[in-house]
Amino acid sequence: MNLIKFFIISFLVALSFFIFSVDVRAEDLLINNNNKKQDFVNKNINVKNLTSSVFNPTFNSFIFLKKNQENELPASELYEESWNTNFLKAYSNITVPDSFSIDVSGFVVPISGKVTSPYGFRKNHFHYGIDIKLKEGDTIRAAFDGKVRVMKFDHKGYGYFLVLRHYNGLETVYGHLSEFLVTQNGNVKAGQPIALGGITGHSCGAHLHFEFRFLGDAINPAEIIYLDGLSLKDNKFVYIKNKYENQCHFEMSSLKNSKS
């Protein structure tokens, strides 16, 4: 009887030890598996961050612009809530991102016509947009959804002109107008009539002066649209800060040389 008890007790002790060993081994395997999963996740996160910074250049902190919301200022995250209704150039105190990817897929041609003057240096000044031939009284349309920021008269240059801020981060400028069809701070849709073409301001013949701007920097329209036909080149445009800083220095030096 004592011998049987001895064998039973020995068997139970051995069984307990075996179960404990299996449990410890299972826990080790689970920990190792979790560590491998975490390493895999970390690698994927690093790859995703690298991909975003290469293929979708934006702010270093990745600012995402809100979609069209009529009660809010367009691209307010990018323009730091700035909304100046008096001046075209109003962003000297705002930090400009090194690069920014802009969705231009919703572009509508303001008016169909021949480009009579491209972007670039002229005899005594720099031309920050393109001129599109029209007849006085022709309808001008908004290039993108947005809001009217500036609606003014400039007798030395633009004549009657509009500045629209858009939800994609761009601003567009329309000059030498004869009549406004929108109101200050009013919301506009792409393709909506906003003005009538004219010959006001410093203008030789009826035409629309049209500009693309980003945080105050003028962008060569030929980088976004084909000048022959005014159709989009691509659905995305990437603004690169250094390129436009160098361009600004060139413009200033060219103007100085022309006056000397």
Fold and architecture overview:
- By secondary structure, the chain is α+β, with helices and mostly antiparallel strands.
- It has helices at 2-55, 241-259; strands spanning 99-103, 115-117, 120-121, 126-127, 130-133, 139-141, 146-154, 159-166, 171-180, 187-188, 193-197, 207-214, 217-219, 236-240.
- The strands form three sheets. Strands 2, 5, 6, 7, 8, 9, 10, 11, 12 and 13 form a ten-stranded antiparallel beta sheet that branches. A two-stranded antiparallel sheet has the order 1-14.
Topology (SSEs and partners):
Elements: H1 2-55, E1 99-103, E2 115-117, E3 120-121, E4 126-127, E5 130-133, E6 139-141, E7 146-154, E8 159-166, E9 171-180, E10 187-188, E11 193-197, E12 207-214, E13 217-219, E14 236-240, H2 241-259
Antiparallel strand pairs: 1-14, 2-5, 3-4, 5-12, 6-11, 7-8, 7-10, 8-9, 9-11, 9-12, 12-13
Keywords:
elongated; two-stranded antiparallel sheet; Glucose Permease (Domain IIA); 14 strands; 260 residues; ten-stranded antiparallel beta sheet
Write a short abstract of this structure.
This protein has a domain at about 100-260: Glucose Permease (Domain IIA), CATH 2.70.70. It is about 30% helix and about 25% strand. The chain has helices at about 1-55, 240-260; strands at about 100-105, 115, 120, 125, 130-135, 140, 145-155, 160-165, 170-180, 185-190, 195, 205-215, 215-220, 235-240.
- Kindly provide the name of the CATH class of the domain at 99-259: Mainly Beta
Summing up helix and strand content along with how strands pair, one would put the structural category as alpha+beta
CATH architecture of the domain at 99-259: Distorted Sandwich
Number of DSSP helices?
2
CATH topology of the domain at 99-259: Glucose Permease (Domain IIA)
Mean pLDDT: 80
According to CATH, the homologous superfamily of the domain at 99-259 is Glucose Permease (Domain IIA)
Order of helices and strands: HEEEEEEEEEEEEEEH
Radius of gyration: 31 Å
